[in-house]
What does this fold into?
Amino acid sequence: MKLTVDEKIKNVPHYPKAMMYGFEDGWTILSSNENPFPPSPKVISAVLDALPTLNRYPGGEAELKAAIAASYSLEAGQVLIGNGSNELIEMCLKAMQHPTKNGVIISEPSFAFYQIAAQVYGFEVKKVPVTDMSVDLTKLKDLIDEKTRLIFLNNPLNPTGTIFEEKAFDEFVRSIPDDILIVVDEAYAEFAENTSFPQSIQYINSFPVIVLRTFSKAYGLAGLRVGYGLGEASLMSFLERTKQPFSVNTIALIAARTALSDKDYLKKILENNKKGKQFFYKTLEGLSLEYVPTEANFFLIKVGPEAGTITKKLFDKEVLVRFMGAYGLSDYIRVTIGTMEENTRFIEVLKKLL
Amino acid sequence: MKLTVDEKIKNVPHYPKAMMYGFEDGWTILSSNENPFPPSPKVISAVLDALPTLNRYPGGEAELKAAIAASYSLEAGQVLIGNGSNELIEMCLKAMQHPTKNGVIISEPSFAFYQIAAQVYGFEVKKVPVTDMSVDLTKLKDLIDEKTRLIFLNNPLNPTGTIFEEKAFDEFVRSIPDDILIVVDEAYAEFAENTSFPQSIQYINSFPVIVLRTFSKAYGLAGLRVGYGLGEASLMSFLERTKQPFSVNTIALIAARTALSDKDYLKKILENNKKGKQFFYKTLEGLSLEYVPTEANFFLIKVGPEAGTITKKLFDKEVLVRFMGAYGLSDYIRVTIGTMEENTRFIEVLKKLL
It folds into this structure.
């Protein structure tokens, strides 16, 4: 057949396959920045109640929007729900498609999907290297030109775990032409302990800023794919026109709504993360290994030029971490903070390999 | 702010809000072509097993692909999984975007999402009116020009329930230039009893034909959003590049895989549909009401110029059907075939209103 596909699409990279594996019980999985604890009994119970209704199309998106809005003292019209933040990222790109004003700026490294999705929609992507492992907002600003349409910021930054602070963000937002959409992906925000973490949501009504959050990390629902976006109401209404109807399924909607109200679970998760972080810092210092202090539920360890080999050897011992070669950080591995048992197991295996 | 959104996006219609309502127990819901029975105990049981893993990103897409492929004696590379057929429709549009060859042809009426999605991706949509309530493949062929990029066929056709037959499809496919992608959406195919229903899957390797199927209808999983596409392997690989990673969640994947293997459930559903259809035909003939014989799990009833009012009055009695005014069929309502209890309840209320 003569059916042709645009070069643009042919050149879109496949998503890293390493993330797609399924693993058996017993593996120590510290590779995908997931929450190490299963959903709370409250979430499980709400899901059970919904099972007999699965023959019906999903309802309940309005209720989840209302609950999220209330938790931030916003209006429901300022909230968008997506099938993971990925769908929200795509909605921003779809709505902002433009024949000539088609530039996207991202940090390098950053979450891989920004670039993949931007390429699908024909955007030209410029990348700004991090400075001291952190998003460099000054260098990023210097790259803006008349073609710039969207900027994706990731705070805390995946894969480094660092943040940019309130003051830098405030200056940045005020200095950007207001025909550019700034998407602030805060997937890991709940884990940030630094009190200078930006109050980005306070900018959504006065600036073209959209803040993305997710139930995949601190709320422990990566398997259900629910993200949300917060922004100015008329902008959100435009974005919603590009959304697939029913893109978030019944189970995802009810689980997210229940998780949002389950403060005890969230508290437990954040305490475990804090404890794990302190354990790792202390242990790695004892081993004289460099690491990047984190504001997220993962962090970078500098294991040296053998980082790729060490990742493979950890894998052979059923410990899964992420080698950072593909992110241009070939001396580093990224490790998710797990349960104390998982953290200890990782350190034990790592010690033997070094 | 000066942020602008393209007119193209501003003009995309919102999806009909009527479908978004949630209804309490006790309502007779015959408006969305859903399966009237809850998922089988086997599906529920598989879902329960997966609940403790929801903190992990979804796995199992490869297994579902393999199971679907095996059920059609295809290779896994000929199968794509989507978050409902909607995602597959979007993947076709994303991959086929083209600056000048940007025409889409659809039947009118047909499933509303084809046009909404095509507009989001900047395609120009031409519509071919049905003839005798059926897709008119001859008129459709006449509309093809050098700009035509995609044709969406829906068989059986939503909202009329009619089919085009094998012979007509065969002639059509052979006469179409092979730089045009033909997407055959067979969401309701399992319900078709007419033995002349096309064997469309036999065309996927020799023609640019993609067949879409879904777990939302006969398999009773509308609330979970799982569709799949069957097509030539290299074409499917290109389409997959435009797919959101993890777009089908853990619960959806495991439920679909289990549902596919549960032949008894499917048999029960198809028998109920056949029985309901015969009940409706007989009853409506007794009431001297015209209807359109169906190959799906829904059908059109000609209730006359008061169809809109009758729909509202049915609603007041907690019976939900779809008024076809928005589809240019203002004398008609579309009724899903429900359980025998629901079918009887609908007829009782309708009788009193006529």
Observations:
- Chain B is about 35% helix and 15% strand.
- Chain B touches chain A through 88 residues (CB under 8 Å).
- The radius of gyration of chain B is 20 Å.
- The first strand of chain B starts at residue 28 and ends at 29.
